[in-house]
């Protein structure tokens, strides 16, 4: 009788190894797999029998050569987390040890400091062991997969059940490049349409507010403001003031130092805005720094020496920050 009881016990224990027993859907609604060969994260939902057999979402990621294989359970979560290499990640979820799900790294704990070249590696092996994802995707895991969620990491060339959407490639010349295009933050310049924003112009102690058209990662100035900006660098610039007959966007011909050049423009609320970078290249002004909805430093080496000018986001308060000292040292 005792032998029979032991035999039945062994049989039932063997079933628990063959058929996974999962926690209730309310506790752990999802099961995550990470194919480290194909750099694909798949999220499974439960079927009617309580098994995680229903693939629901798939994301491209970047793992690393040192990423471990096995089944783990998530634990700590961080909105921001310091990472190896003196960088930071958003919406980090610990998988095991020092291995985390997290965003593509940032140079600072600042959403406008994305390592955009690393972002373009999503779908490839690129990390030191963690699992990198877009902000949108890793935030979904952060928000929807509670601590204790099972994560299976493996290497395989077998097809995955879902084909993820390929992440957008960031143009390295786009002024929005320092932001993750998927970040839901309202300040994300990728989320903004064609709009006129207020910026400050600073040359030494002189400060003036100007209107700037910002779209598709490009800055553009009205004729008057462009003449003011470049005039403070010691450059005389004459731009057409007319608007009739112009399409909503295109190119116009301008005359500078007896030579003709084409400059791109856009129209916004009846005004014409000329592309800042086009004008800078024609004149010979060096754009030392250009950030999406951030600071822009312009440098011009003229006959009287080097002139510096900064454009910066305008704040409607009486304590407008002045950075004239930084202009000479950066």
Q: Secondary-structure element order, as H and E?
A: HEEEEEEEHEHEEEEHEEEHEEEH
The helix/strand class is alpha+beta
**Count of domains:** 2
Approximate shape:
elongated
Low-confidence stretches: 1-21, 317-330
* Estimated radius of gyration: 27 Å
Strand content: 35-45%
Give the % helix.
10-25%
The number of distinct β-strands equals: 18
Strand order of the largest sheet: 13-14-15-12-11-10-18-17-16
* Nearest-integer average pLDDT: 86
The helix count comes to 6
Q: What's the end-to-end separation, in Å?
A: 86 Å
Major pleated sheet: 9 strands, antiparallel
Write the layout of secondary structure elements.
Elements: H1 2-18, E1 31-35, E2 40-46, E3 52-60, E4 70-73, E5 77-83, E6 87-96, E7 99-103, H2 116-119, E8 131-133, H3 135-144, E9 150-154, E10 195-203, E11 206-215, E12 218-221, H4 223-231, E13 249-256, E14 259-268, E15 271-275, H5 276-283, E16 286-290, E17 296-302, E18 305-313, H6 324-329
Parallel strand pairs: 1-9, 7-8
Antiparallel strand pairs: 1-2, 2-3, 4-9, 5-6, 6-7, 10-11, 10-18, 11-12, 12-15, 13-14, 14-15, 16-17, 17-18
Folded structure, characterized:
- This protein is an alpha+beta fold and 330 residues long.
- 16% of the residues lie in helices and 37% in strands.
- It contains six helices and 18 strands.
- The strands form three sheets. It has a nine-stranded antiparallel sheet. The protein has a five-stranded mixed sheet with strand order 3-2-1-9-4, with no helix packed on it. A four-stranded mixed sheet has the order 5-6-7-8.
- The radius of gyration is 27 Å and the shape is elongated.
- The N and C termini lie far apart (86 Å).
């Amino acid at each position: 009788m005792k032998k029979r009881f032991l035999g039945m016990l062994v049989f039932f224990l063997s079933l628990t190894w063959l058929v996974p027993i999962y926690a209730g859907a309310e506790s752990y609604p999802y099961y995550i797999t990470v194919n480290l060969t194909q750099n694909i994260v798949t999220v499974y939902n439960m079927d009617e029998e309580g098994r995680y057999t229903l693939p629901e979402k798939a994301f491209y990621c970047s793992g690393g050569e040192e990423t471990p294989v096995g089944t783990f359970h998530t634990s700590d979560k961080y909105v921001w987390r310091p990472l190896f290499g003196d960088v930071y990640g958003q919406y980090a979820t610990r998988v095991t040890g020092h291995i985390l799900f997290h965003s593509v790294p940032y140079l600072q704990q600042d959403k406008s400091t994305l390592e955009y070249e690393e972002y373009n590696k999503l779908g490839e092996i690129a990390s030191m062991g963690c699992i990198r994802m877009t902000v949108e995707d890793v935030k979904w895991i952060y928000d929807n997969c509670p601590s204790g969620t099972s994560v299976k990491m493996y290497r395989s060339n077998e097809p995955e059940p879902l084909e993820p959407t390929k992440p957008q490639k960031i143009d390295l010349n786009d002024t929005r490049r320092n932001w993750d295009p998927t970040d839901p933050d309202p300040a994300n310049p990728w989320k903004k349409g064609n709009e006129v924003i207020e910026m400050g112009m600073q040359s030494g102690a002189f400060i003036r507010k100007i209107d700037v058209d910002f779209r598709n990662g490009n800055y553009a100035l009205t004729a008057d403001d462009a003449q003011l900006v470049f005039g403070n660098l010691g450059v005389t610039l004459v731009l057409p003031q007319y608007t009739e007959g112009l399409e909503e966007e295109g190119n116009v011909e301008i005359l500078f130092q007896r030579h003709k050049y084409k400059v791109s423009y856009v129209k916004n609320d009846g005004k014409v805005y000329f592309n800042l970078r086009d004008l800078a290249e024609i004149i010979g002004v060096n754009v030392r720094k250009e950030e999406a909805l951030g600071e822009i430093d312009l440098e011009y080496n003229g006959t009287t020496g080097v002139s510096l000018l900064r454009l910066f986001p305008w704040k409607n308060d009486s304590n407008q920050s002045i950075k004239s000292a930084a202009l000479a040292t950066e």
